[in-house]
Each structure stands twice: as structure tokens, then as C-alpha cells.
Amino acid sequence: MTIDIRDINYVNISEVRKTAHIGGGIITRELAKALGVQGLIRPTAPNASVGYVSWATLGGYSPLSTKYGLGVDQIIGAKYVNAKGALVDAVYSLKEILEGTFVFESTNKHAAWASFIDGYNKPTANHDEGRRWMAKTVALGTCVREVIKTNSWSTYCEEKEKLAGYGVYGRARTLNFKDLTPKTVEILAKYNESVPGPGSIFLMKFHRDPGHYLDSMFSPRCDYYWLEIIATSLEEAGAEVADQWALNLQRELAD
Questions:
Q1: Which residues form the FAD linked oxidase N-terminal domain (predicted)?
Q2: Domain of residue 253, CATH code
């Protein structure tokens, strides 16, 4: 049985604008919009349709995590209804971002990956500094298209939502690793060449040690790479091929 709780989507911001009570069924789209109206922001999933609570309680990886912490770091209290129907007490601000989208020439996948990884890395709230770093990013390969602009977080999430398909078949896998070795780059380039079709992709995020201790029970507080392998297909018949592609990539990287 599946219970749809998306109607539990309220957002009540405190008078001091430091905390907010939110409904357990709220999705990123509604949360980002409600906070944005008040000139507030917090780490969320980059895709607008992702449920906030499930995202945060699985760690909460976000493009804003390096600067503001993981999603789980943001939770200061919670109440939930358990399987017996009992209410259980589980207690134990930025207006816009500078974002950039870059498309690199990648006829030679290995060369493109190696060139990018060799020169990559830095988030900053200073837009001038951000633009300087984006210029360095453009120089990491043969950039055939770039889009750099200021954006509200809610609009950013809506735009990233367009990258996701609906009515797809399959699943996603994840893998963490400390370093991008030449062998790792070779494997990523290999599987970049063999993406099975629309609906499948892999994404990588770098999470930096914030440089200070965060009081959290969830503490991957070191520099590491997080790889998400999305193995889905627009057609049911392609789901098995997509999943095998992802499984092979995961196994080869793990070895």
C-alpha cells in the first residue's frame, strides 16, 4: 500500500525567520517557492518534484551542501505518525545564486573527462568571484555552449526539473569515492560512451569538507565524490538494459 501525503504541504515560517514548520509531504517546488517569497533559501534537491523529507532523511545531497550542510543538517526537530497511528516526537537565509550550465565538446569522452577532472574545483557567494571560477570551468575543455546567470533557488529547481523524465521504468544507484584516479576517469568515459538511451544518465557531485565540525549524527565530513547513476528507460522493454548498464558501471568502479 502506498499513501500519498503530498497534500500535507504547509510551510509556517517563524517570526524571527530562523526556522520553519513544514508538512511531511511537501515537495521541493512548494518549499523553495514559499521560502523564496520571504527571501530565504535552504539546501534542497535540485529537482522541483523531489519530496523534501525523503531527500533530507537519506542525507540530503544538494548543490548548496558544501556551504550550508546536508539536508539532514537542517532538521532541528520532527514529529511523525508510526505504523500504530501514534504521533511520535522525534527530537533526539540567501535570495539568489549564480549558476552556470556548460556543454563541452565530447567526441573523445576520455579526453573530455580527463581535461575537466584535472582542472576542476569552489562555491562562493561572491558573484564576481563566481564568474571568475566559471571562466576557469569553461577553459577545462572545448565549451560549445554556456549559460551563466543569477537565479532564485526555486527557479533553479524548476529548470533542473526539466532534465528529468516522467513515466520511466528503472531505478537509480549511488556510489561514493574519495579520489578521481586516471582509472576512474577511464571507466566514466567508457560508460559515458555507452549510455543505453534517453532516460539514463550519471551525475557526479563533489562534497567538500566544510572546515569546521557540524553537530550532526550524519557526518560524511570529508572531501569525496558522490556519483548518482540513473538507469531508467522511457520504454518498459529498455529498463533491463539500462539497469545492467548501471550495475556494470557500479561494479567496475567498486573494483
A1: 2-89
A2: 3.30.1370
Q: What is the pLDDT of residues 188-214, one digit of tens each?
A: 888 888 888 888 888 887 776 666 555
Dist. CA 138–CA 103, nearest whole Å: 9
| Nearest-angstrom CA–CA distance, 200 and 186 | 19
Place of cell 527571501: 39
- Look at residue 133 and tell me if it is in a domain: no
- Distance separating alpha carbons of residues 31 and 45, to the nearest angstrom: 11
- Whether residue 242 is contained in a domain is answered as yes
How many residues are there in the chain?
A: 255
* Residues 85 and 170 reside in one and the same domain: no
123 three-state secondary structure: coil
- What residue type is assigned to position 246 of the chain? A
- 160 alpha-carbon distance from chain centroid: 10
Q: Can you give the residue range of the structural domain that contains 38?
A: 11-89
Task: List phi, psi (to 5°) of 195.
Answer: -55, 125
pLDDT tens by residue, 89-136: 887 656 677 777 667 666 776 666 666 555 554 445 667 777 777 777
What is the Cα–Cα distance from 218 to 215, expressed in whole angstroms? 9
Query: Is the Cβ–Cβ distance between 171 and 231 less than 8 Å?
Result: yes
**Number of CB atoms found within 10 A of residue 213's CB:** 8
Number of neighbours of residue 63 by Cβ within 10 angstroms = 18
